User: What shape does this take?
Amino acid sequence: MSYLGVGVSPGNVPVSHSSSSTNLKVIDRRVRVAELVLRFLICGLGLAAALLVATDTQVKEIFMIKKKAKFTDMKALVFLVIANGIAAAYSLLQALRCVMSMVRGNVLFSKPLAWIIFSADQVMAYVAVAAVGAAAQSAALAKLGQSELQWMKICNMYDKFCNQVGEGIASAVLVGLSAILISCISAFNLFRLYGGNKNKSSSRW
Assistant: This one.
């Protein structure tokens, strides 16, 4: 087609990629915000779970003998406290990294760093879920007992202790679910670096 003697070849018509670039930036921004929110959520809930269980005590008098119930009496609760404390500290560090990167703007994101973050998030997710599973099993035994093994119900006597432990386990469940979501986000951030259209200087926070 020609107009005023100027020929225009269809193959030479410039194509604008501004729309697709804008969509990618919007998606990237949403992923960043979601990761930041989840990491702060894990930090807060992990700290709450650890404190609820670690500070939980109750004293009962049984046959003229005072018996104090505390979380160290059950190894699963000790594991829960340690796991959620570590998860809270780790998530706080990662959240601060995210905030600093957002303030500084685009940062060179290398594949080795992406692998380190991905691996650490995977480990934290597995540990958080394992701690919840172990604590939930112990809590069920304390609540229901086990007649076949002659294990009596503990929560009948230490109701306040069991209720607070239950609140801590509920917080830990949310930590585990959030950790799973974080591991999915870090997997997305890692494997998109291997995309065919990904530039060597990948922008990441």
User: Anything to note?
Assistant: Residues 1-11, 13-17, 196-205 have pLDDT under 50 and may be disordered. The longest helix spans residues 18-54.
